[in-house]
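Appendix C: a fully annotated inverse folding record. The material below is reproduced so that readers can follow the format used throughout the book. The structure is listed first as tokens, followed by the designed sequence.
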């Protein structure tokens, strides 16, 4: 049975945040909703009539997506100590181009971001990592597009030391769920070179946050 929008975790998470921040929500119109195979809400396009605490109307359109995770996977060559990024390559609706991104996905109604992040890494790259191997870089979520979406992102990274052959074995493998229209190829590339391929601001930011977290100032200078 299809989940009603107003009963969904994503909708209530978003609306409760509005109310907690002092907005008076008069009405919400559901313009379009996409659900997964289980009938659960994936995302919605909403038209909102709401007033701010200052007495102003707020821009009404919201793309409801909910909480998401993004994971930087860094391979470290056990012999040379050179760092590589494991990216996912796929076409995106923003402009139809082939994009290079860190593995990512939506939490839906789950609350354990690290567990979801570990699962997304496996589904999109084939690498099995435990959530204990993931390091969080933001305790509170970042909002990539505050003007039009509620998307709230939790970012992680993990370092995996492998042999040269093991690292290259993860390059150009087909991944993704066809039922979700995912047509993904994995892409292994030296860190600085991979950074230049990333065009989404979340991925660029995560690269910098990772290097700051591990104190790799020399590689940071190359970016």
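Designed amino acids, in order:
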């Amino acid at each position: 049975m299809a989940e009603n929008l107003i009963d969904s975790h994503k909708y209530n998470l978003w609306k409760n945040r509005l109310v907690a921040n002092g907005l008076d929500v008069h009405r919400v119109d559901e313009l379009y909703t996409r659900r997964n195979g289980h009938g659960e809400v994936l995302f919605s396009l909403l038209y909102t009539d709401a007033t701010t605490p200052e007495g102003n109307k707020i821009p009404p359109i919201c793309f409801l997506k909910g909480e998401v995770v993004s994971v930087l996977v860094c391979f470290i060559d056990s012999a040379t100590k050179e760092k590589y990024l494991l990216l996912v390559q796929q076409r995106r609706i923003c402009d139809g181009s082939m994009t290079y991104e860190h593995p990512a996905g939506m939490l839906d109604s789950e609350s354990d971001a690290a567990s979801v992040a570990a699962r997304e890494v496996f589904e999109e790259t084939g690498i099995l990592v435990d959530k204990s191997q993931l390091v969080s870089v933001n305790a509170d979520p970042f909002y990539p597009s505050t003007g039009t979406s509620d998307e709230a992102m939790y970012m992680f990274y993990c370092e995996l030391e492998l042999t040269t052959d093991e690292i290259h074995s993860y390059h150009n493998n087909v991944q993704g769920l066809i039922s979700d229209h995912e047509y993904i190829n994995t892409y292994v590339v030296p860190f600085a070179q991979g950074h230049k391929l990333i065009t989404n601001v979340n991925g660029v930011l995560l690269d910098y946050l990772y290097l700051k977290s591990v104190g790799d100032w020399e590689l940071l200078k190359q970016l």
